[in-house]
Amino acid sequence: MEMNCRAVAAAVDGTILQEGSERNIRRFVIDSRLAADGDFFVPLKGEHADGHQYVQHAAQNGAIGCFVSRDYSLPLPPGLFVVAVDNTLTALQQAAAAYRRRFSLPVIGVTGSVGKTTTKDMIAAVLSARLRTLKTEGNLNNEIGLPLMLTRLEADTEAAVLEMGMSGFGEIARLADLAKPTVGVITNIGESHLEMLGTREGIARAKSELLLALPPEGAAVVNGDEPLLVPHIKNLPCPVITFGFGEAAAVRCRGVEGAGGRKSVLIEQAGYPLLRLEPPLPGRHNVYNLLAAVAVGRLLQLTDDEIREGLAVMQPTAMRQEIVALPGGVRVINDAYNASPTSMAAALDLLQELAGGAGRIAVLGDMLELGEMEEEGHRQVGRLAAASGLRALLVLGERAAWIARGAKEAGMAWENIYHPASHAEAARLLRRLAEQGDYVLLKGSRGMRMEKVLQHLQEEEE
């Protein structure tokens, strides 16, 4: 990182309480346990802990500087460059924004209700075929994580792909103000955060804050099959590129060829030859993500061969449609990171596509933050589960009981629906129900920690 502690203090209008090393900072950290030589520690105040209690620990681990609140009264570790600020989170954001302004490079902001992480991974894979590309790691996509990602820009970084999450109005606008994206990508509009935003129209408006932040020389890349986005792409100061299956999409899937595990997507775009690509991940929903990646790659002047080369080595983020083979011949689709009715439907389609004629079992957990759609959203997923030809359905959580009822109402036999009380009990049921060759889907909201079912299964195998 091309920034030292003194420059950080100036960027945040902080007060230097104690001087220390003048060398460049290695990175910013918010966890003292992860601090190492050359790091700058940012103590944050949370519900259960105050990072100011760990300043000494960060210094012992090698941190060369830190922020502290102006009312900090604990002893200052010797040699640590200490900067007092009004609010440590705000200071982190200010430092990240100042650091971002030092760079002139393509910054692709990615948001959407479903698929933004996979789309981010695909875009980064494509760009990495030619450009040294920084991409959001893990879940660093919020008011804390995005600034941390910005501070990881290096002198030789040629592009950045940054995921932007939100739960309410104004959050994407604030993230975009920090990141200064040159390209904005919106994957789709689903039901996540209905509790905070009220309607899908509200979600579309909140996501579209990204588009309003784009410069005239930038570009908006949006799902052209999502009618709720149409009002938000009118009168933008920059060009708009749509993607989808519909006739009007600028980057359009003309068809899918092949069967089973090997399929090719035919992509057409005016001014380009017909492109045939093998998707790195299965499922119709991932074709949308692929189209967005192609649109961004071409926008940044990558060749179709480079796009193909990048996708071939794509590494998806954990718990997004990971396929894990268990010793007994059962394959688990670990899609446990999050869930909404839209992503549940896509996951059930994926289960059907991958399993083919093999047995299928779904383990579905609560979906959170659905607001007034809570009961109907769960029942809707239950009806889809029943229609998908499952041999067994397991539901976890209080709200998931509505999934079970929806499945029963849609004709699924009650004896094939189970409501285990814990992840461990779900694993024991799967051990009894799953047969060699079966596919098992794990999916639920992040708070349900559905991956624990897989962990129990793997522990039993050891």
Describe the secondary-structure layout.
Layout lengths: L4 H7 L3 E4 L9 E2 L10 E2 L13 H6 L4 E5 L11 E5 L2 H13 L6 E5 L4 H13 L4 E3 L9 H6 L8 E5 L7 H9 L3 E4 L7 H4 L2 H8 L1 H4 L6 E5 L16 E5 L6 E9 L2 E7 L6 E3 L6 H16 L4 H9 L9 E4 L5 E4 L6 H15 L4 E6 L8 H14 L4 E5 L3 H10 L7 E2 L4 H11 L5 E5 L7 H11 L1
Helix pairs in contact: 4-10, 4-11, 12-13, 13-14, 15-16
Question: Which descriptors would you attach to this protein?
Answer:
462 residues; 34% helix; UDP-N-acetylmuramoyl-L-alanine:D-glutamate ligase; Udp-n-acetylmuramoylalanyl-d-glutamate--2,6- Diaminopimelate Ligase, Chain: A, domain 1; Protein-Tyrosine Phosphatase, Chain A; 6-stranded mixed β-sheet; single chain; alpha/beta; 19% strand; globular
Largest sheet: 9 strands, mixed
Helix content: 25-40%
Shape: globular
User: Going across the major beta sheet, what is the strand order?
Assistant: 7-8-6-9-10-11-12-13-14
- CATH fold-level assignment of the largest domain: UDP-N-acetylmuramoyl-L-alanine:D-glutamate ligase
Uncertain stretches: none
State the helix count: 16
* Second CATH tier, the architecture of the largest domain: 3-Layer(aba) Sandwich
Counting DSSP E segments of at least 2 residues, the number of strands comes to 20
Assigned CATH superfamily of the largest domain:
Mur-like, catalytic domain
How many independent structural domains?
3
- Tell me, rounded to a whole number, the average pLDDT: 94
| Helix-and-strand structural type | alpha/beta
